[in-house]
Amino acid sequence: MAFLCKGFLRAAAKRGLSSQFVQTPLKSQRSLSSMDPLPNKLLQLPSSLIKSTLDSATRFPQDNPHFSWDSLLACLPSLSSDKARLVLEWKLEKMLKGNERDYDQYLYLMSLCEKIRNASLAMHVFTSMEVHGIKPTTSLFNSLIHACLSSKDSITALSLFEIMQNSEDYKPNDETYETFIIGFSSLGNTDAMKSWYLAKKAAGYCATFQTYESLVSGCIKARDFDGADRFYDEIKSTGIMPSETVLENLLEGLCRRRRFNQVKEFIKSRLEVWQEISVKMAEKVVGLYSEHGKVEEMEELLSTVVESGQAVTVLSQVNSGIIRMYATLNRLDDVEYSVGRMLKQGLSFRCADDVEKVICCYFKEEAYDRLDQFLEHIKRTHKLTKSTYDLLVAGYRRAGLSQRLDTVIKDMELAGVWR
C-alpha cells in the first residue's frame, strides 16, 4: 500500500498541482516592525535572493538577534506567491538537512502550504517525509486533501480519498469528511458539499458546529436559500445552539431575498436570546434598508440598538447608514438632525466617504453657511482627508466662492495635504 501511495503521489507531483496564491491572513502576535527587520527585507528583495538571505539570517545568529520564524509566517501574506513558496521550501530543506523527525513539524508546514494555497508544495512535503522514512497518517492525508481543495484541485483530493479507503493504516476519519465539506462549501459546489455531508453521516459521524457552518454558508454562497433553511431546521432539531456564523449567513439569505418582515423578526429574536447583534449583522441589515430606501425601518433599527445597549461599533454602523441614506435622498434637514444625534451619542464619522456624501448634499442645496457649521462641528472628532479637501475645493470653485476656497486651501496647507 505504501508503494501504491508513493507512486500516486509522485505521479501527481509530476502532473503539477495548482499553485495559485491567494493572500490569507495568518494570525501572529508579532508585528512587522523595526524589531523584526528580516520580513521587511524579504519584501524588498528579488525572489532569487530569498533563500540566501534566510541562510545568512540563521548562519550568523549573533548578527541577527531578532530572527524569528514566527515573524516570517506573519509576513507570508504580504509576499508574492513565488516568495511565499520559497520561504516554505527553505524551511523544508532545513528540516530535511537536519534530519527532522518531528511529525508535527511537517504537519504544520503542510498547513502553511494550504494557507498560501499551494498544493504542489504540500505534495512535495508529503513525499519528502516518505523518502525520509516518516510514515503517512490520516492527519497528513487530511492536510494534503485540504491543500488540494484550497487550490481547487478536487480531482487529486478525491484520488487521495480513494487511497485512504484502500489503506489499512490511514483510513478516512471524521476530519476527512469535514475537510471535503469545508472545501466544497468554499468552492460553492453545494451538490458535492451535500453529498459529503450524507457520506459523513453514513460513515457514522455526527455533524458539528463546523459542519453546519460550512453547510449553511455554502448554500448561501450558491444562493440555495431553501437548502440553508433546511440545514437551519436540522440544527434546531438536534438541539445544537446555532453559532453566530450560521446566524449571520441566515440573515444574509433573508436580506438577499428582501424578506423585510423576517429580517425585523430575526433581529428582534436575536436580541431577546443573545441581547446583542454583531457588526456583520448590522452591516447586512443597514445595506438592505439603504439599497431599498427603507428610511422608517432604518430609524426603527437605530431605536432598537440604542434601547438594547448595543456596542459602539454597531451604533456607529447604523448611524452612518441613516446619514448616508438621507444624504443620498438630499434630505438635508434630516442629515443635520442625524449627524447631531450621532455626535450626542459620542460617536463620529466612520470614514471619509460618509463625510463626503454629506458635503455633496450641502453643495446640491447650495447651503454654504450650513456647510461651514457642519465642518466646524466634525473637525473636533474627525480629521479631514485629502479627498475630502479636494471635494471642498472643487465645490467652492464651481460655486465661485473664492473666499471659502482660499480658506480651505489654507486649511490644507496647515494639515500638510496641499500640493
Automatic annotation (TrEMBL):
Q: Name one Pfam family in it.
A: PPR_long
**In its keyword annotation, does this UniProt entry include Repeat?**
yes
**Protein's UniProt keywords contain Repeat:** yes
**The entry's keywords:** Repeat
Write one Gene Ontology MF term: mRNA binding
Top-level taxonomic group:
Eukaryota
Q: Which Gene3D superfamilies match?
A: Tetratricopeptide repeat domain
Q: What PROSITE patterns does its record include?
A: PPR (PS51375)
PPR repeat intervals: 208-242
Q: Which residues form the PROP1-like PPR domain?
A: 100-274
Q: Hey, which family's this protein in?
A: Belongs to the PPR family. P subfamily.
| UniProt protein name | PROP1-like PPR domain-containing protein
Organism (species) = Gossypium stocksii
